[in-house]
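ok trying again, last paste got cut off:
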Amino acid sequence: MQKARALLSSPVIMVAAAFAIRIFYLLVVLNGRPVPAGNRYVIGGELGSIAAALATGHGFSSPLSTESGPTAWSTPVFPLLLAACFKLFGVFSLRASVAIRLLDVLFSSLTSYPIALLGRRLFGDAVGTAAGWFWALFPNAIFFSVVWVWDTSLAALLLSLCVLATYAMEERPDGKTWFGYGALWGVATLVNAALLVVFPGSVLFAAAKLRKRGLSWFRLPAVAVIGLGLALVPWIARNQLVFHGQVFVRSNFGLELWLGNNPEVPVSWSWWLHPTESGKEREEFLRLGEVGYMREKKIAAIQFIKTHPGDTVRFQYHRFMETWTGFGEPFLDIWRGAGATLRAELALNYALTVLMLLGLAGARRSLSLASLPLLNVIVVFPVVYYVTHTTPRYRHPIDPIIVLLAAYALVSGGRYLNGRIALRRLDRQAAAGLQPAD
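nice, full thing came through this time. structure:
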């Protein structure tokens, strides 16, 4: 029994189980829907087009599957990984598709490890074990790692590592470690630029912990900022040179803002107006160039927001709901006409959010200020998607923290129920005039 418990509580076993589950699902998907060679949408979309340009010697360029010159549509890490797969196995080939999905599966599986360690560090062994297995079995983590060729799974892994490192930094008050901490955040940003918004709150928390211990609370965080900056400098310098000082990390904010804020938006965003879907928009992109097109869309979006404040608030409400429930429409409206599968998905999404909120409230009581890095992730990361547009995939980088908090709520709830059951048993024994059992 002890050996079985040790195995179940081992993060290595969790990672292995997660990998096996995802490989099984990958086999099911490939058997049911083989990925056709040349299908750019299912092999990375815009990132696949950039990777194809890299693999064929055209540099970091052309996000819309037609030659359009240099791009900063995406940060560089995932397109480079995908380009390596294309180079080894063929551009948009089935073998390349399988290779990049295997990498995504590996990234998603490995995420069980830092989540288990973080749970143990903050809440104890039971929560760490529950969180690691929860992630291994989490449907969204299984689905996105297999179906979506994107930076989604790698971003979730890196954010988990960054949050775990944030809690550990006070134990390593040396410059090299803090420089590496900042560099880790820099690599995470080069995978998914949205992760950068979590860094300020994280480094401030780590600095406050140093100050509480009477250590150098300014110098070491400054070293972390330098580490972050040096990791980003080559990419930013490239963008500044190529786009003549008009782009820093990414170029496509104007388009994303406009897709969620224009007269044709029905509820959340107008996906059919994306240049990958609309021939008219693609032609406009090619005519104006990437920077000019993004600037035009940003101006149009801001003008719409200024002149349609009511619609803007309505869109943001639906995006908030979609972030936390997976759907922008009210619960009952979906439930009435839904089949069993959709109802199960809806129930899981709502249950996960409720458990996350309960876990966050419990963490605030048990950890006090030490809960702030978790709150920082949950509150700060999604804000840009409330403003632009969202899908459940966009939230996925913070899903490991959501799963951790949900696991904490479940374990705490189980402990509470066990305590209540034990008290009732003692009350019944007392009422019957029996002595409590040892």
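cool. Residues 119 and 128 are 4 Å apart (CA to CA). The chain is about 70% helix and 0% strand.
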